[in-house]
């Protein structure tokens, strides 16, 4: 049954140094979507805000063993991970404690490699490990990018989007050269898209002409159900599976599996 599964998880960062662009919404809903398509998923909350943890229905302050202890070498991922019952995937939870990790990490050897080393011990348990990055290029984000095979960039099609994107693509190139020769840009995901806005359509077309196949076909619309879901501790794809936002993230999960050559396994209802 599991013979045709990959031996080791594909590890993808959801990153964009811009704040509030939809990283966490994408991380939670992609994790749940992949789980619905029969994939074994771990969602790593690399942001001290702990939004991915809470949005997966896990109380971030109740998680006494969390990513902080893992990064400073005091706990294994296997001890810290918690099942998201609403989402059907595992979460490596975080809370404000994680902001202290920056200071501890600076003093460590291989300080950018701590997350990679910790995740390598559970990589065979999953098909996908998704890392929700904070909106900074901190040592935490470097740990994410140094430990991943690829980056998924959610973005809004706004006027300055292309400019911000070239900074991010340059960062990815630098990390590729200096820290992680496995790192690749998996794709750009257009989110919070409003088809009524001509400007968004123009930026979207520019993205396609600059980045070609690196732009995912799926476009996630602006949809209030996706914004409401976290307050119920549920991914949007579970909270209201027939909403336009949920359907987009379900399609995105399928597109990603196909893009990486994985196999869709519809989960028994
Ligand atoms: P940060 O940089 O702070 O980590 P982020 O990039 O993770 O932010 P989110 O928290 O996912 O961004 O989203 C920012 C806000 O936009 C949230 O209130 C979220 O509910 C809302 N949002 C995200 N995607 C959508 C969407 N497709 N439709 C409507 N609202 C959305
Ligand atoms: Mg976030």
Describe this entry's structure for a reader:
The protein has 269 residues and is α/β, with parallel strands linked by helices. The protein has one domain: 3-Layer(aba) Sandwich (Rossmann fold), CATH 3.40.50.300. It has helices spanning 23-36, 51-55, 67-71, 77-80, 101-106, 114-120, 139-146, 161-178, 198-211, 224-228, 236-239, 244-259, and strands at residues 10-14, 41-45, 82-84, 89-92, 128-132, 150-155, 184-193, 215-221. α8 (161-178) links the parallel β6 and β7. α1 (23-36) packs across α12 (244-259). The protein is globular, with a radius of gyration of 17 Å. Magnesium ion binds at residues 23-24, 47, 51.
Q: Could you give the distance between the termini?
A: 18 Å
Overall domain count = 1
Instruction: Please indicate the percent range of residues in DSSP E strands (runs of 2 or more).
Output: 15-25%
The CATH class: Alpha Beta
Q: Give me the oligomer status.
A: single chain
Tell me the CATH topology: Rossmann fold
The largest β sheet comes out as:
8 strands, mixed
Classify the secondary structure makeup into a structural class. alpha/beta
Compressed to H and E, one letter per element, the order equals: EHEHHHEEHHEHEHEHEHHH
Sequence of strands across the biggest β-sheet = 3-4-2-5-1-6-7-8
Report the CATH superfamily: P-loop containing nucleotide triphosphate hydrolases
User: What is the CATH architecture assignment?
Assistant: 3-Layer(aba) Sandwich
The general outline is: globular
Indicate the mean pLDDT. 94
Count of individual beta strands: 8
Spell out which ligands are present: adenosine-5'-triphosphate, magnesium ion
In terms of per-residue confidence, which ranges show pLDDT below 50 for 5 or more consecutive residues?
Answer: none
Q: What does the radius of gyration come to?
A: 17 Å
Q: Given the structure, what is the number of helices?
A: 12
InterPro entries: AAA_dom, DNA_Partitioning_ATPase, P-loop_NTPase
Protein name: Chromosome partitioning protein ParA / Sporulation initiation inhibitor protein Soj
Organism: Castellaniella defragrans (strain DSM 12143 / CCUG 39792 / 65Phen) (Alcaligenes defragrans)
Pfam families: AAA_31
């Amino acid at each position: 049954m599991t013979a045709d599964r990959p031996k080791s998880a594909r590890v993808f960062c959801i990153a964009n140094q811009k704040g509030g662009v939809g990283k966490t919404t994408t991380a939670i809903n992609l994790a749940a979507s992949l789980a619905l398509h029969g994939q074994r998923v771990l969602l790593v909350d690399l942001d001290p805000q702990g939004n991915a943890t809470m949005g997966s229905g896990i109380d971030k302050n109740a998680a006494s063993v969390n990513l902080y202890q893992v990064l400073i070498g005091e706990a294994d991922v296997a001890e810290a991970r918690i099942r998201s019952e609403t989402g059907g995937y595992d979460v490596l939870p975080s809370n404000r404690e994680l902001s202290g990790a920056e200071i501890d990490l600076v003093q460590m050897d291989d300080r950018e490699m701590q997350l990679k080393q910790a995740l390598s011990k559970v990589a065979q348990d999953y098909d996908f490990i998704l890392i929700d990055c904070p909106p900074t290029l901190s040592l935490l984000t470097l740990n994410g990018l140094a430990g991943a095979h690829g980056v998924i960039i959610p973005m809004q099609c706004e006027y300055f989007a292309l400019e911000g994107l070239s900074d991010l693509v340059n960062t990815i190139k630098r990390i590729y050269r200096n820290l992680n020769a496995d790192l690749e840009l998996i794709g750009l995901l257009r989110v919070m898209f409003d088809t009524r806005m001509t400007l968004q359509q123009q930026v979207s077309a520019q993205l396609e002409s600059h980045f070609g196949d690196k732009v995912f076909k799926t476009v996630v619309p602006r949809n209030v159900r996706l914004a409401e879901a976290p307050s119920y501790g549920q991914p949007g794809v579970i909270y209201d599976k027939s909403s336009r936002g949920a359907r987009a993230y379900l399609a995105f999960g399928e597109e990603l599996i196909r893009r990486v050559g994985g196999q869709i396994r519809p989960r028994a209802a």
